[in-house]
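hey so u asked for the seq, here:
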Amino acid sequence: MKSGAATVEEYLDELTPERRGAVSAVREVILANLPDGYVETMDFGMIAYVVPLERYPETYNGHPLSYAGIASEKRYISVHLMNIYGSAEDEQWFVGRYRASGKRLDMGKSCVRFRKLDDLPLDLIGEAVGRTSMEEWIGRYEASRPPKRRAGTKRVRARS
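ran it, structure tokens below
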């Protein structure tokens, strides 16, 4: 359920009391562990934690570089952890730690889905969010992008 809220406060006000409590609890953990430089905003209809465009404007879609997010969906709440998705080593660490918590992991590429706050190991979410500095995250993003062409050069297609 994509929200049209312009602010985090508006987003939280749209939620049912139960959902608001769960999203607020996850938000508090993220804010307490978020490395320096990232900012909280609304992006793509969810609460987002991003590299501000003032710091890194060269994203492929013109939006701030996303690092984490929280979304209240129709049947669940999702916590998006782009740094876990962006690193096989971090993903392996996260999945292992999550399973060791005894809680059931429902995970997509970058999102962890849960229905009740008790289903989520909040301490692990905090650790995961605190794991990647903004400089490291920008470096990973740049390494994942195709190399930039120099001005005046053309792409040449190989003939077969």
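The CA atoms of residues 31 and 112 lie 17 Å apart. The first strand starts at residue 39 and ends at 43.
lmk if thats what u needed
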